[in-house]
Amino acid sequence: MNCRIMGFALCLAGLPLAAQAQESSQPLMPANGVFIGAGAALNQANFGNQDLAAFGVSEIYALGYWVADGQAAGSTYPDLGTETGASLVLQGGFYRTINDTPWVWGAKFSYNSLGLTGSRDNILIPQTGSYSGEISGTFSGNYLLQSYKVEVEHQFALVPLIGYSFGRGFLYAGAGPTLSQVNANMNGLIGFAELDHRYDVSGTPGYFSSSDWVWGGTATVGVTYFLTANWFLDLNYSYTASATTTNNFLNKFDTVYPTVEFSGTSGGTYSATANNQAVALSINYVF
Asked: Which pTM does this prediction carry?
């Protein structure tokens, strides 16, 4: 009788240990979740693909009398280089396990504050042209752009993803659309023509700026790691290519010299492109 009682007691004592062992074997990551998170990113933006095109048309006067109409045009493709910097990232999304398999699917919406700028000073836009009227001929010249800056400031991304769970998290990859704010500034644009000598045809320097929201696409790979059932870390790499935004500029001029006067219009387009890659780490809460 005592043996039976002792055996029953030992069996009861073993039940909590068995339950604890079974609980520890369960994966820490919830099968499904909705999450929000915040963190930081290290970004590198590339501003290599730029296009500046300019033209000028004018009437030419000598000693107050019209003598010819002139026109010129040309373009250049400056490389504004790259810039690296840290930024704030915010994200939210969801994931779902596929039919009790290790595979998961989901999506996340993210914001990256970026704030990176590419710039270059003293850019020459070559010009070739001609004039005709009482006199005629050809000439060369250039626009001098004292500084040109392109900035990518805010970026939003919506990324569907597919992943594979390893118990405490999942590896994932995805791709989706982005929306980025791209700002461009042309500061101090002056047009010169080589005639009997070098003339500042356009007179007062021109200043032009634009701010555009530009669509693009991003591809990302990453890994999540659950610290608890409600908190996880997300480490990911992404590459984003944005569309090129093109803006026009136009400026009237009337430039007077002692014996010559130029009256007309200068204008053109400036096309800005900014692509970036980022490594981001965030802490996230699962509901």
From this structure: 0.84
